[in-house]
Amino acid sequence: MWVWCLVFGYLWNLGVETYAFYVIDIASFMTILFPKIAIANPIFALQNSNDMPNAIYHVPVAKNDPVRQYAPGSPERAKLEIALKEHKSRALEIPMIIGGKEVFTENKIKVSPPAEHAHVLGWASKGGKEHVQQAIDAALAAKPKWEAMSWENRMSIFLKAAELLREKYRYDIMASTMLGQSKNAFQGEIDCACELIDFLNFNVQFATEIYNDQPISGEGCGIEWSIDLWRDLYWR
User: pTM for this one?
Assistant: First the structure.
């Protein structure tokens, strides 16, 4: 988890071009970060069973994740200090993740805090043209399975990701943001933890609202039921 956030934070400062070389397979990131989501989620169990669930699902109402204050002596401050000490004490070899596999190259970039260039957080493998193509191929290979997944199962992945970030991985991504971008605790809390959790939860709600937006069926034309089938912009 920390490796991805560290690379993401570093590349955010470098710009879109460099970002494209590193975080080039978001599907693989989700697979690695949350490997047990499908097992832990009851909706997946329903889909994989022989029973067809007859239900209209209502997703949880999205709420902004409460901002923690990290006051001296607070439990959250103690957990954050432990995470910061742990992450700063080691220098990692940071691979690219393509198709769920770690890919290392000899072309490395030093990863350091912007306000402490002498300290090394890790060495990131820099990708080339061939890695970009590999990532594109991996994403296209995963596309049919994702498209075939029911909307409630796709939503449940986002909701489970938000749940894991809310507590289990919160202090790891906080420490990564603070070290990788030289942010203070409050900036890391609102820019990384809260914003990412809210992004996942609110987009589940927004997508559900879009799916619920259906046309009114006309009258006087016999039996008629007008529906919209929502899809992404890319269609083959």
Answer: 0.76
